[in-house]
Amino acid sequence: MEYLLSPGAERAMTAAQSWAARLGSEIVQLTHFILALLDEEEGRVAQLLHRLGLSPDRLREQLLALPPAPPVPSPETLLALARDWSLSCRQDPQVLTDALLLAVLQMDPQYAAAVAPLGLDLPRLQAAVLPASPAPESAAESTPYPLSQAWPSPLPPPPSETSPRATTTSPTAESAPPPAPQLTLEPIQNAPSYPPPDASSVSSTSVLISPASAAPAVFDAVAPPLPLLRVLDTNCNRAREALRVLEDFCRFVRNDPSSTEEVKTLRHDFARWEQRLPLSLRLSARDTPADVGTTLTAAGEYQRASLEHVCQINLKRLQEALRSLEEYGKLLDPSWAKHAEQFRYRTYHLEGRLLHSSRRQQLLAQARLYWLFTPSAAGERWEWRLEQALSGGVQVVQLREKHLADRACLQLAQALRRRCHQARVLFLVNDRPDLALWSEADGVHLGQDDLPIAQARHLLGREALIGVSTHTIEQVHQAWQQGADYIGIGPVFPSQTKAFDHFPGLEFVRQATAVSVRPAFALGGITPENLLHVLAAGARRIAVSACLSQASDPASIAAQLRALLDSYALPGVNSVDSSGPAPVPAP
Ligand SMILES: Cc1ncc(COP(=O)(O)OP(=O)(O)O)c(N)n1
Ligand SMILES: Cc1ncsc1CCOP(=O)(O)O
Ligand SMILES: [Mg+2]
């Protein structure tokens, strides 16, 4: 649907967004539109209020004191109402600012009731709105509004709002709304290059109205063709929507303030950049019912396997939309297109951050069999043992070296990390965040006497996995509170790997698994023979050392453990990772 907007109405549409941003609102509310209209100091709304004895300043104050207003469902709905009103009362489809005000009040009866006591009483306003000038659009600038008919002195003549988006506009026609950047005039030679500049066709009197600050209007005196506008409008919407989905993911799924902040900043920067393509132009090109794409659906469009999948799809959607904006934007303004490219680069950083960490979290969520590996104890056969364990279905490998020199340990860690990542298996380092960092491990495992979680996190960053050993229920609660990604619970049985005086045993497994929603690995003397007891106590994941490190056939022991573990469902785990961890032999 195409809408014809007066320059004032067009500015108000943009200024409403500025008001929303200025008041810290994520959505444009009805009040923001009224505030935007009040900013048109010499517009029809100002005249209307004057006639009704209402002060714009006082109204502004009162509106700002109101509780949050309902959002505008879509600018299109608002414009459709305003246009309908104009058509029925003025026999003119053009949207003037006063029609916009009436439309705002018609959007929501409760809101209309709330603002009526301020003087914004819909029937009273409707009665006071004057007909528009019958002057043809082309004559609007030169034909004065029929002042003599209706405007009482001492009012200044009403503004010439009767022309649609003007190809040339007087800089003094109406003042800029305060929240938006000041409007200035730029010579058209500096204008964006759609259509390609042709010196002979550029009138010396033509001017480009654009905000002087960081956001000059991207279009110039000649409106771009509708197909181009439709592409840009659609992709601006796609990108903005995808950004919102991603922000929700960072905020509510990941609970991660830092990535939430990153997406939010990107979203705000995008919104500022997007505003350079005036909303009214975009709306004038929008024609959803006629869009041949709305009825086409692709296979899988309505299928999402997990929260991570939603994130992945929306990152792709965002990148595609930005690429399209970049390519088509080149027809409009190369510098505008350049920004689209820069936004796209920022999404790659975000993707690395969200999906890399997601890979780790996904693998951890699926992990049932965790191996504490001491290569130095395996002698020259350590690589064979590693391959065996991987082929048997081990899903996490921890390098647990207590006596090896740091440099040798680092080299081992790097080799293990390479192989584990090839096999899509997590690799962690025991005790040593520094070695975890330098070997690019997926994380570190910390005992109760090792470095605290906060310090390890500081060193390794948010995406690293940090596991913590727990031996009491208090330690379990503390580990979760401090941000552990998983816990070890044990020792369950006497161990050939490490001597213990005290065994929290199966009772602790019961307690710890009952209060844990994140992965908890039972450990200490677990073998295929006693695993059923551990499972019966509630564990669904285990960590083992000796039974794999000392077995003559580690692959078959690992496979037996996996078969038993896999026969119990893991609560709340759904994966999108079709390639999955290392191949698991059939039970
Ligand atoms: C998965 C897992 N759980 C517990 C431990 C034990 O850690 P810690 O208590 O620090 O003892 P050491 O292994 O460092 O001797 C672990 N390593 N892995
Ligand atoms: C390090 C450690 N901490 C608690 S149990 C354990 C060793 C587990 O190894 P194993 O499976 O050989 O008993
Ligand atoms: Mg330790």
UniProtKB/TrEMBL annotation:
Annotated Clp R domain residues: 1-137
Cofactor remark: Binds 1 Mg(2+) ion per subunit.
Residue numbers spanned by region Disordered: 135-204
Biased composition (Low complexity): 135-152, 162-175
GO CC term (a single one): cytoplasm
Single GO molecular function: magnesium ion binding
Residues binding 2-[(2R,5Z)-2-carboxy-4-methylthiazol-5(2H)-ylidene]ethyl phosphate, per UniProt: 495-497, 525
Pathway membership, UniProt: Cofactor biosynthesis; thiamine diphosphate biosynthesis; thiamine phosphate from 4-amino-2-methyl-5-diphosphomethylpyrimidine and 4-methyl-5-(2-phosphoethyl)-thiazole: step 1/1
Example GO BP: thiamine biosynthetic process
Enzyme Commission code: 2.5.1.3
Coiled-coil zones: none
Top-level EC class as recorded in UniProt: transferase
Gene3D superfamilies named among the record's database cross-references: Aldolase class I, Clp, N-terminal domain
Catalyzed reaction equations: 2-(2-carboxy-4-methylthiazol-5-yl)ethyl phosphate + 4-amino-2-methyl-5-(diphosphooxymethyl)pyrimidine + 2 H(+) = thiamine phosphate + CO2 + diphosphate; 4-methyl-5-(2-phosphooxyethyl)-thiazole + 4-amino-2-methyl-5-(diphosphooxymethyl)pyrimidine + H(+) = thiamine phosphate + diphosphate; 2-[(2R,5Z)-2-carboxy-4-methylthiazol-5(2H)-ylidene]ethyl phosphate + 4-amino-2-methyl-5-(diphosphooxymethyl)pyrimidine + 2 H(+) = thiamine phosphate + CO2 + diphosphate
Family recorded in the similarity comment: Belongs to the thiamine-phosphate synthase family.
Biological role stated in the UniProt entry: Condenses 4-methyl-5-(beta-hydroxyethyl)thiazole monophosphate (THZ-P) and 2-methyl-4-amino-5-hydroxymethyl pyrimidine pyrophosphate (HMP-PP) to form thiamine monophosphate (TMP).
Protein name: Thiamine-phosphate synthase
Organism this protein belongs to: Thermogemmata fonticola
